[in-house]
Amino acid sequence: MGDFYQNGIITTLHNLTDRPIDDLEAELTLFSKTRPMSLVLPSLYSELQGPALDNIVTELTQVPYLAEVVIGLDRADRAQYQHALEFFNRLPQSHRVLWNDGPRLRAIDERLRAEGLAPTEMGKGRNVWYCLGYVLARGQTESVALHDCDIVTYDRSMLARLIYPVANPTFNYEFCKGFYARVADGRLNGRVTRLLVTPLLRSLKKIFGHLDYLEFLDSFRYPLAGEFSFRIDVINDIRIPSDWGLEIGVLSEMKRNYATNRLCQVDIADRYDHKHQDLSKDNDDGGLSKMSIDISKAIFRKLATNGVVFSSETFRSIKATYYRIALDFIETYRNDAVINGLDFDVHNEEESVELFAENVLKAGLHFLENPKEKPFIPSWSRVRSAIPDIFEQLVEAVEADHQEFMGR
C-alpha cells in the first residue's frame, strides 16, 4: 500500500485504495468517447514464445476503452510475421503489426536513411519510434500508452492506471511515467535503477551541485520503467535514443519540452516482474553492461546540452564518487530486504556496482572521444518536413503487409 507523500518536483499519483478495475475502466470508457486511446507494444518475435505475452494479450482482450493497439515486431522473418498476425488476431480492438524486418518497412527505412533520418541502430528505441510514427500517421487517438511485452505479472489494471492521467480530460498532464516495486521471487530486482541510476544521479549532484535536470530525474521513483503514457501531441517533436538510453532519453525530452506541472508518475502495480538481463561482465555489447553504458551516456549528453563541461578528470571523479555512494546504497537495500524477509546477495550486488563503476568511466570517455556522434533519432516533425508523404507511405506499407497475409 502506497502513501500520499510527494517527493521531488514531479506529481506522484499513488495507489491508496486498490480501486476496483471495473470502476477505472468504466471511467476510461467514458473518457474514450472524447479522448480515444491507443496502446503501443514494442515486441521481439521471441516474446511471442515467452511466458508473458500470451497472458498480456489475454488481459487486453478484456479492455473496453482502447480504440487501437499497435504492435512493433522485431527480428521476425516472413513465417514469423504471419504467426504474429495470427497470435494478435484475437484482440477485439483495431490493431496492426508493424513488420519492421519486412521488405516494405525496410524500403521506408532505406529512404529515410538516404536522407540521414533513419535510426542508426536496431533496438527498442527504433521499434518504438516507428510505432509512434504510425500512431501519428493514423491520427485516430488522443492518448497513447506504451508498455513492454515481457511483464510476467501483467494484469489489465496496469494499463488502466498508466493511461488514466493522460486520458482524464479534467487533468492537464501531457506525460505520465509508471512506477512499481521491483520485488519478485523473494528478492529485490531492478539492479540498474537501484545500483546505477540513483547513485549516479546523487554523485552528479554532489559534484555539480543543484541542477534542475538532476533534480528532475531524481524525482522519478523508477526512471527506467518501460511503461509510460502521453498525449498525442507529445510525439511530434520528441527525439529519442535508439539504444538502452530510451527511457532516460524520453524523460529528458519531457523536461525540455514541458513544464513539470504537465508531467506525473503513477503507481501501476504492487508487484512487477519481467525477464532479467545477464550482467555480461565480459561483454560491453550485451546485457546490463551495455545497458549501463548507454544509460550513462544518455545522462552525460543531456548534461552537456545544459552547459556542463566534462573532461577525463571529471569522469574519473564521477566514477570514484559514484562507487562510494553505490556501496552505501547496498547497505541500505540489504537492510530493506532483511526487514521484509527477502533474500539479498551482497556479493552479487557489489559485483554489479564494480562493473557499473567501470562503465560510468567508459561511457564518459566514449562521450569525449566521439563529439560528432548523433545518438538521437530525428523527430517526426523533421521527417515530415523532409518527406511530406512519409505518413501515407507508412500506413500504406503496414496495410499492404496486413492485406497480403491476412487477406482482409
TrEMBL record:
GO molecular function: transferase activity
UniProt keyword terms in alphabetical order: Transferase
Gene3D superfamilies with a match to the protein in the record: Spore Coat Polysaccharide Biosynthesis Protein SpsA, Chain A
InterPro entries the record matches: Nucleotide-diphossugar_trans (IPR029044)
Listed name of the protein: Glycosyltransferase involved in cell wall biogenesis
